[in-house]
Structures are given as structure tokens and as C-alpha cells.
Amino acid sequence: MMNTTSLFFTTYKLDCPEHDFQAQKAVSSARGFTLLEVIIAIAIFSILALGANAMLVNVTSSNELSNERAKQLENLQRAMIVMERDFLQMQPRTPRSYDDSNNLVLSGGEFEFESDDFGVGFVRSGWQNPQLRLKRSHLQNIAYRLQENRLERLHTNYVDVVIGTEPKVRVLLEGVTGFKVEVLKEVTREFSWSDTIVSTELPAAIAITIETDSFGEIRRVFKVKT
Question: In which domain, by residue range, is 108 found?
């Protein structure tokens, strides 16, 4: 025989299905997330994190590449400024050697000055010496060469140096695969450039060609004689 309490709950459950659905929903919500739901949520967040990380890596790499290219361009511009200053102030001065046998104002050629390609040497003016504080001239004996993919500028403190004097070396540009020097002896209707550099007189103009990994081939022409 069913007691009064059981009959009451049975009747209430049949007469109020909405109340029963809400009670089941409350019980289901109290259980929390299932394992499958947690795995799906982790997978979604992992995909989003991987996408964000890939985007961050691309942005960082692009920024580093841009900075590197800007630095290379800055180094190239600095090297060109130094070379322009030197070539435009070239002087018809012969560096005297210990035996006074040198009469060349412009020397160089292929593999000269221990270069892996072309090398060139001359005397330039405009080397600042305020109030003559240093015991040297305003003239400077310099040379350019290519060694181990580096464009180097060589100079000595004195124009006329004794034998055995080692020049000071400054690396102007790295990543250089080729360096060529040409001279224009005189201006005519058709320019005739020559890679025979040695001369007892200043040329009308001098051209340099630099090949680099980053910027390809670069050619600059400098007017020497005014």
C-alpha cells in the first residue's frame, strides 16, 4: 500500500512537468563541464594561441629584417660618403719612397695592395689638423682594397713613410663580393674608361664598381680634375 507522502510526490511530478525539467537542468548544471567539453575548449584555445604566436613571430621577423636592411643601407651610405670625400680631394702628389723611385700620383690595379680584386692608392688633401697640433700634414696617403668580402680603407699618418710601416686599416663595408676601379684619362665625345690605373697624372674622372650581396652592383663616378 502506497503511503500518502509517495502519492503526493508522484502526483506532483505528473502534474508539473515544467518544475521537473527545471530541477533536472539545475542538477545537470551543478555537475560542471564534461571531459569532452573541456578537451574541445582546450583545443580551441590552443589553435588561437598558435595563430597569435605565428603572427607575432612573423611581425618580429619582419621587424628584424627591416632593421637589418636599414643598417646595411646606412653602412653603404657612410662608405660612399667617405669614398666621395677621398676621391674628390685627390691631389697630384707623389708619395716619396725610401729610394725616391716612385713618380706615380695614382697607383693600383688588379690584386694590388694585397686586394682580392682591384686596389687603388693616391694622396688626398683636406685631412683636418686644427692649429697644426699634430706633427703631420693635411695630406693623407690612402688606399682601397677588397679582402675577405670586406671593402677596406688604408691610410698612414704621414704621406712619405719609411719602409716597413704598416698602414691603419678601416673596414668600410662588409658583404662585398667585387670591387673594380676604372679611370677616364680625358673627356671626349665618347668616354673611354680604362682599368689601367697607374698614372703620373691625375685622371679626369675615376669610377668605382661595388658588388654586394644585399644591393647588387653599384657604380659611382667621381670627377677629379676641375
Answer: 33-129+137-226
